[in-house]
Amino acid sequence: MSYQERRALVSLVETIVISVLYSAYMIQRYPAATPYSPEIFHFWGSFFLILIPVSIVAKIITAIIFAILNAIATREEEPPITDERDKLIELKAQTNGGYVFIIGFILAVGSLVISLPPAAMFIILLLAGMLSQIISDISQFYYYRRGF
Amino acid sequence: MSKTLITNTIRKLRFNQNEMTQQELADKVGVTRQTIIAIEKGQYSPSLELAFRIARVFNTPLEEVFIYEEKDR
User: Fold this and answer.
1) Which of A112, A123, A144, B52 has the highest Cβ tally under 10 A?
2) Which one, of B70, B53, B51, B67, lies nearest residue B2 by Cα?
3) Structural domain boundaries of chain A?
4) Could you read off the pLDDT of B45-67 as tens digits, one per residue?
5) A2 touching B, CB under 8 A?
6) Structure pTM?
């Protein structure tokens, strides 16, 4: 398994773990209020805003830990360059993730059209974001495994 | 309708250059070893620029490194 394949797998595991842990932690703070109260909107606003720095920090920490453990286990250093194939694979993987997020966004907006509570829209949006990242990581792993 | 396929002779050319390693070729053309492996296996078609750089390393015309074939479906 190449360095890039291992990195994609680690990113996939990190995405799943952070998503589950963060959601589990935040859901305990879900306000006991009516579906359309401002508290609900405040909760979801802060949910998404806090998630951004949390995932950035988690990505940085994971990348550092992965680089150290990988160097110890395989004595293989990180490739010093990102070449055209890496960029193409990243682009294709992000495109696949983007498609998933667009579908999620349409479903989220659709939930408002059929008069579901706003929380449903936020949950669909959140799931779409997580699924989009997961699909992007899986795509990256798949393309590296296949060659391109 | 026909299917296009690009094959290459990089493995043979490396052998003729005192068994040049994939890493050496990768360093000379500025890509990772994984990309050279993918090109050699025919899994990845390089950009025109990279194809020229590879041909230049072997001092060989491009069409002798990469062969364009057309197969009927």
Assistant:
1) A144
2) B70
3) 3-146
4) 999 999 999 999 999 999 999 99
5) yes
6) 0.84
